[in-house]
Every structure is written in C-alpha cells, then in structure tokens.
Amino acid sequence: MAPKLPGSVEELRAAGNQSFRNGQFAEAATLYSRALRMLQAQGSLDPEKESVLFSNRAACHLKDGNCVDCIKDCTSALALVPFSMKPLLRRASAYEALEKYPLAYVDYVTVLQIDDGVTSALEGSSRALCHLVLKQYKEAVKDCTEALRLDGRNVKAFYRRAQAYKALKDYTSSFADINSLLQIEPRNGPAQKLRQEVNRSLN
C-alpha cells in the first residue's frame, strides 16, 4: 500500500475530491493546485503523488471545458508516470473535444495496448472515434448505435454518430443526433458548432 501524502497535502487533495464530487470543478482545481504547490515546495521526490494531482486537476479542466489546460496537466502527469490510464483517457477526451482526432486516437490505442480490457477505451463510442479517424463512417455509425442502445444518453455516441452521418452526407440524421445531444447537454460547444455546419449543408 502506498504511503499517504503529507497531512496538509492529503487534506487538500481530499477536499478537492469532495468539491469535484459536488460538481464544484473550479474550486476543486484550486485545491489541487494548492496541494501541488505544497508538495513541490516540500521537495517531494515521489512522482506518482504529483502525477495524481496533475491528473485530478486535469479532470476539473475537462469538466469545465478547458481542454487546453486539461491536455497540459495530463501531459505533466504522464511525464511523471508514463502510461497512466486516467491521464491518457482524459487527454484523449480533450483532444477529441478540440477535434484533434488523430491525437485522441493515439491515446486511446495506447490505453488499449496497456490493457485491452479497459471499458472506457473499448466502449462503442470510443471505438467509433477510431473508425472516424480511419474514415470508416458506416462502421462508426454501427458502433455508436450499439452504444446508444446500451445507454440512450451517451453524449459521445450521439456526437460521433452525427459526425459520421455528416461525412456520409446524411445531414438529416446528423442534425437529429445533434439535437438529441443538445437536449442532454445544451451548452456542449463542439455540438453547437457541428449543428451550425450541418445546418449550412441542409440549407
């Protein structure tokens, strides 16, 4: 069992975890930042502890839609502890939100190479991303449809299927998927942008 973080750092991390669970992502990020500064000031030589704090703060950035800082923190976490699952998956999600699909694909594939049983990387919507990168649009639609059968509120599946339909020039189906997504997450920026693009194709 790994030793506990130094008391005050551990308390800050625990408080950050609680804020994150409460949906207070900015507050959680601030607490993780304080814990990082304190840990670094103490001259900690334990990269795993520092990596976890970077990864936790990255999760806050991702929830707040700050994908650039999420990627930076995930990269810092991975520099300390290479091939850590959570930073890889979070960075993949951030790359995807920024429409940097080849980079997201690389991170997902890396996760699968580490552990091909990881559900988050194997789920249909994530596999669909790989199909999108490879321009296998019909396969992407099939994977997303299966993911939505299992979870009718899977935002990633709606988004990726909408992208695939758009690439197949089935703009009506794409528009319908985007609207379904926005009913679940009205402030989803990438979906709003995609709807504008599809709407131009429809008109």
Automatic annotation (TrEMBL):
Localization per record: Cytoplasm
GO CC, alphabetical: cytoplasm
Top-level taxon: Eukaryota
UniProt keyword Metal-binding present: no
Entry keyword annotation includes Disulfide bond: no
Assigned keywords, A-Z: Cytoplasm, Repeat, TPR repeat
TPR repeats: 155-188
Matching Pfam families: TPR_8
Main location (coarse class): cytoplasm
Name of the molecule in the record: Translocase of outer mitochondrial membrane 34
Organism from which the protein derives: Sus scrofa (Pig)
Lineage: Eukaryota, Metazoa, Chordata, Craniata, Vertebrata
